Amino acid sequence: MPGIIFAVILMLSFYTGTNFYVAKRVYQWLNFFLPAINVKLFVIVFVCIALSMFFGFLPIPSAIRRILSWIGSYWIGVFVYLLLFFLLADLFILLGRLVKLIPGPVPGNIRFYTGLIVIIITICLVIYGRIHLGHINNVSYNIQTNKSALSGDMKIILISDLHLGAVNSENNLSKIVHEVNKLKPDLVCIAGDIFNDDLNSLHNPSGVIDSFKSINSKYGVYACPGNHDGGRTGTVNEMIHFLAQGNVKLLTDEYTVIDNRLVLLGRLDSSPIGGFGGLKRKNTAELVESIKSNLPVVVMDHNPANITQYGSEIDLILSGHTHKGQIFPANLITNAIFTVDYGHYQKDNASPHVIVTSGAGIWGMPMRIATNSEIVSIVLR
């Protein structure tokens, strides 16, 4: 617990400090052509925007909470790029002074034009990221199992990280379902983070249920819970019931046999936000050993950090979680942290195939830059 408290304090301190830096640079830039700007009013507005995502957790009317959530979600993306490009601009100015190309003190026109470039680039990237988010890629893989028990090919459609309840997520769901149905799947697997922490954040619950029910899959729709499906607000049981209403079968450290052709195992996430209402992740080795079958075994495990827990008895692991970073430069970070943060991976011939999707939805900022929203089509042979 002390470690968690320290980490939270460290993160809040970093967020506060970097917001102060961004606020100072934005104010200096605005002051060039709005010299009469009221500094107190600017500070109040900036603080409210920066804290809007935290206000959304307060017990306030749902309409206000949604507005604050919308502002906070966009602000994360805007803030990331303002911080990145203001730092680059200051580095440029510092290097210019060191080589005597820029005099000191720094002329006001240099501050103004570097600030203008930062603002323009940030606005363009945020607009592009928001538009690009709506484009859903179809990605396909052919996977050959080491077992001969699979009779004929099986087309599995993998989606993950819907984050229902996030900005524009429910409208996005109907588009995702339409694309999934066009692929004519034998089996649909949802590899976690179906919800965005709280079932109550859905705007149109009945519409979401109808969208799930409209998925056309020969052998049905199965899911495993991700870290954001842990029921942070105590709604985990309601989430499970909700999915059942939409004909989505949630596997919580359970397995099922699909048409006597393959075994599908769904894992509880290893680090849930909310704790899954008391459900605990089982020992992987013991769980896998309990599967008495010569059929191919497919595992849905939300976090690809867990892939080292599986051996040759597993044929295919389906994961999400990483979003492939979602926006640049976070994709560089996920690539450095995870053995595989995206795509197909197999350590050696005796190891399971792993497919990690960048996700069909988004978390936090409603934008994608240098990554794609996607639906994955897998032909298992």
Can you walk through the features of this model?
This protein has 381 residues and is an alpha/beta fold. It has two domains: 2-132, no CATH class; 138-380, Purple Acid Phosphatase, chain A, domain 2. It has helices at 2-33, 39-50, 52-55, 62-98, 108-133, 169-182, 205-213, 236-245, 284-289, 330-337, and strands at residues 136-143, 154-159, 187-191, 221-224, 248-250, 254-258, 262-266, 297-300, 316-319, 343-345, 353-356, 373-380. A six-stranded mixed β-sheet has the order 1-12-2-3-4-5. Strands 6-7-8-9-11-10 form a six-stranded mixed β-sheet, with no helix packed on it. The longest helix has 37 residues, at 62-98. The mean pLDDT is 91.
Summarize the structure.
The protein has helices at residues 2-33, 39-50, 52-55, 62-98, 108-133, 169-182, 205-213, 236-245, 284-289, 330-337; strands at 136-143, 154-159, 187-191, 221-224, 248-250, 254-258, 262-266, 297-300, 316-319, 343-345, 353-356, 373-380. The protein has 381 residues and is an alpha/beta fold. The chain is elongated, with a radius of gyration of 23 Å.
